[in-house]
Amino acid sequence: xxxxxxxxxxxxxxxxxxxxxxxxxxxxxxxxxxxxxxxxxxxxxxxxxxxxxxxxxxxxxxxxxxxxxxxxxxxxxxxxxxxxxxxxxxxxxxxxxxxxxxxxxxxxxxxxxxxxxxxxxxxxxxxxxxxxxxxxxxxxxxxxxxxxxxxxxxxxxxxxxxxxxxxxxxxxxxxxxxxxxxxxxxxxxxxxxxxxxxxxxxxxxxxxxxxxxxxxxxxxxxxxxxxxxxxxxxxxxxxxxxxxxxxxxxxxxxxxxxxxxxxxxxxxxxxxxxxxxxxxxxxxxxxxxxxxxxxxxx
Length: 298
Prior knowledge:
Oligomer: single chain
Number of strands: 14
Largest sheet: 12 strands, antiparallel
Order of helices and strands: HEEEEEEEEHEEEEEE
Structural class: mainly beta
Shape: elongated
Helix content: 10-25%
Low-confidence stretches: 10-23, 156-168, 236-241
Strand content: over 45%
Number of helices: 2
């Protein structure tokens, strides 16, 4: 016991002598550094959502549509049930970036498979709202996601195409104008109506969640809209090639990569109705389309 006491006596003496060794005027030992504050939870963060473009950048998506509905020749007349399935690839290329941040984006949609009531659509099939494939559209898009100018569209309205994919494609971006200010989870904003739609088009987008996935910040957006089907999405499928009108209402959830400034994917429904213009003859068609858009690598 005495041996242990002698062995640690020097340590006790050192502890007792420390104040004297430092001197009466020695500054006190600094406190340990404070722990960094916890980052705010994702739901409390405010995000500024912006599309980002790099000239020459290419993006690829896969689109799947599945729809059910009916086609009627006249009110109270013959009505036929409809089922519709389609898969298509969508390629986007940033052709030009302007100093203001706008970009010319060329989009090409190529149909891989399209079935109407189980029968493949071909050049011998006519259907309201048909477009031919591939469908090519070039538009000037702002960082807020608005289409500033539709520059060109090819492959629209030709006989024997695919029913409705053009409307579904434009529905994914119709009115998806990003807010001018940073937004938090639960906040909503209204989109201005596209020029050709006037006051008839209404769209509201809500930030419903912020997620961290694969090392990136992803915003989940609920996009609800209603209005006319864009004219370029409708073919001349009334009787004797008469004009066609249409309306659509959509409820979509989109995943938006905040850092890359682009849509990663989308799911939801679009309720679409088309028919001959006033005074015309042809089929009235109603389709409820389920949409799944998946970005490459997602």
